[in-house]
């Protein structure tokens, strides 16, 4: 349990101090100060959605109640009554707690990717349409439920879809009342079997993420793709990621890792974003022949300058400026990276592989948007790492559960009797331990993640669009290197 105090979280100090070190030596001439004043004045000022006051309430949804669960279990027919809509709404963060295959869910029976994305997409930020996607593997059903629960309950994301590639996975996904698309047609090559993905099959599935992102972009959606071993903090996920990307004029954002970790992707449907996604996806066959993952391919594309990674606002603006000078801004994206949430807590770019060394991570920390146990092998170890970090929300028994079908204790994670898949349908831990989510629900504020402090005047001037190329170059190159 964290003690809440009216100060910045520890990682804010770490990030702020190191950002300050990067900016040491900046000096702005009187000419540039005048230029800033002119370009940021009332005639050029632009208010972006991330600069408005953040609401004090959480962006997510309430947890489903045990009383509602018992009511539905005692009388499933009540879901077809006039009270059914309000009861269904209670389970938006955990639809697997409803009886299997509820026909009144708006997405029930819709399994075409294009149709499901159209049905699930919602306006995000200043964009008319955005959708989040997650791969669903029935052998990782418990992990997926923890991710979806926190995504909706704390991240406020309702516009998501699960992607399946076998008939068994699609059936299991539908049994859990999740919005499921059949994307087998997007596989770069056929899988070797129907069992738990391993070896090359697992590699092929990682490339499936890229194909789905490309398709979503082609349909005009802002595309978010997330691994299911990710658990979320109580911050508006869409607004946070969009703000972080767009503050630097970037075409997308991912977690930093030589240059990026592809476990959480956000790409905008810009010309450069589409071109990049297309090149990334078209490299699948060649990369798979060499045994390389989609994440390695990003490193390869960056080395070949098919994308420009950046982190600081200055480096992002400079990347865009260089590409514009070269006439490539519509073809090469600028992708902005953010540090892993665990970095300020462990001083290790890779998350700690042993759960015994995983620190408790403050979900209210502005730098913690989600926790992703990278460099951790095995479902059980990932689950234990999330549990130790304070980001596991299901009432299953970690020591007995390995995330496979039927795993978990019968009390809190019973199988779905009466279905062929027998998927575990996990109950929220908060039902048994009322304080289980207290750290997530007692934050002093619930503003944007990754965004902290005011907008630098140089960034505001560059973003205004009122500067000439020469003026922009002077602002970027004053007293330091981006």
Outline type: globular
Radius of gyration: 23 Å
Compute the average pLDDT.
85
Task: Quote the beta fraction.
Answer: 5-15%
Low-confidence residue ranges: 1-47, 398-408
**Tally of helical segments:** 18
The strand count comes to 11
Structural notes for this entry:
- The protein is about 35% helix and about 10% strand.
- With about 475 residues, the protein is α/β, with parallel strands linked by helices.
- The strands form two sheets. Strands 1, 2, 3, 4, 5, 7, 8, 9 and 10 form a nine-stranded mixed β-sheet that branches. Strands 6-11 form a two-stranded antiparallel ribbon.
- Strand 7 and strand 8 (about 260-265) form a beta hairpin.
- Helix 2 (about 30-40) crosses helix 17 (about 455-465), helix 8 packs antiparallel against helix 10 and helix 13 (about 315-325) runs antiparallel to helix 18.
- It is globular.
- The two termini are about 40 Å apart.
In short:
The chain is of the alpha/beta class. 36% of the residues lie in helices and 10% in strands.
Secondary-structure topology with pairs:
Elements: H1 10-22, H2 30-39, H3 66-74, H4 84-90, H5 113-120, E1 122-124, E2 127-135, H6 141-153, E3 160-164, H7 167-175, E4 180-182, H8 199-218, E5 222-226, E6 231-232, H9 237-247, E7 252-256, E8 260-267, H10 271-282, H11 284-289, H12 294-303, E9 308-310, H13 313-325, E10 334-338, H14 343-346, E11 370-371, H15 379-389, H16 438-441, H17 457-463, H18 469-476
Parallel strand pairs: 2-3, 2-5, 3-4, 7-10, 9-10
Antiparallel strand pairs: 1-2, 5-8, 6-11, 7-8
Helix pairs in contact: 2-17, 8-10, 13-18
């Amino acid at each position: 349990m964290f003690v809440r105090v009216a100060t910045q979280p520890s990682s804010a100090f770490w990030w702020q101090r190191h950002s300050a070190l990067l900016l040491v030596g900046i000096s702005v001439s009187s000419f540039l100060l005048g230029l800033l004043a002119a370009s940021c004045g009332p005639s050029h000022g632009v208010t972006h959605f991330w600069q408005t006051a953040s609401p004090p309430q959480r962006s997510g949804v309430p947890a489903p109640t045990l009383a509602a669960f018992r009511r539905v279990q005692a009388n499933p027919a009540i879901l077809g009554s006039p009270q059914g809509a309000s009861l269904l709404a209670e389970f938006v963060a955990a639809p697997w707690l409803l009886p299997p295959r509820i026909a009144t869910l708006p997405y029930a029976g819709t399994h075409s990717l294009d149709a499901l994305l159209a049905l699930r997409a919602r306006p995000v930020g200043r964009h008319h349409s955005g959708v989040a996607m997650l791969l669903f593997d029935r052998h990782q059903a418990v992990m997926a439920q923890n991710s979806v629960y926190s995504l909706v309950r704390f991240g406020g994301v309702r516009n998501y879809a699960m992607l399946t590639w076998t008939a068994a996975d699609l059936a299991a996904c539908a049994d859990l009342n999740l919005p499921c698309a059949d994307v087998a047609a997007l596989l770069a090559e056929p899988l070797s079997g129907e069992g738990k993905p391993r070896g090359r099959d697992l590699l092929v599935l990682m490339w499936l993420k890229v194909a789905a992102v490309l398709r979503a972009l082609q349909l005009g959606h802002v595309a978010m793709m997330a691994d299911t071993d990710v658990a979320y903090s109580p911050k508006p996920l869409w607004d946070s990621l969009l703000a972080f990307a767009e503050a630097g004029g970037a075409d997308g954002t991912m977690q930093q890792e030589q240059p990026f970790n592809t476990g959480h992707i956000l790409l905008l449907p810009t010309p450069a974003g589409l071109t990049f996604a297309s090149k990334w996806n078209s490299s699948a066959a060649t990369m798979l022949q060499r045994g390389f993952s989609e994440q390695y391919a990003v490193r390869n594309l960056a080395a070949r300058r098919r994308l420009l990674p950046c982190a600081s606002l200055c480096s992002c603006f400079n990347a865009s400026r260089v590409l514009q000078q070269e006439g490539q801004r519509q073809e090469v994206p600028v992708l902005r990276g953010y540090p892993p949430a665990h970095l300020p807590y462990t001083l290790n770019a890779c998350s700690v592989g042993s759960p015994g060394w995983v620190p408790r991570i403050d979900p209210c920390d502005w730098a913690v948007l989600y926790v992703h146990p990278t460099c951790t092998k095995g479902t059980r170890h990932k689950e234990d790492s999330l549990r130790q970090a304070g980001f596991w929300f299901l009432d299953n028994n970690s020591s007995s559960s390995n995330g496979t079908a039927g795993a978990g204790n019968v009390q809190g994670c019973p199988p779905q009797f009466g279905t062929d898949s027998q998927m575990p349908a996990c109950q929220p831990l908060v039902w048994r331990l009322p304080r289980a989510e207290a750290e997530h629900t007692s934050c002093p504020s619930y503003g944007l993640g990754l965004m902290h402090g005011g907008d630098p005047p140089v960034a505001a001037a560059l973003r205004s669009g009122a500067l000439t190329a020469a003026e922009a170059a002077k602002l970027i190159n004053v007293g330091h290197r981006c």
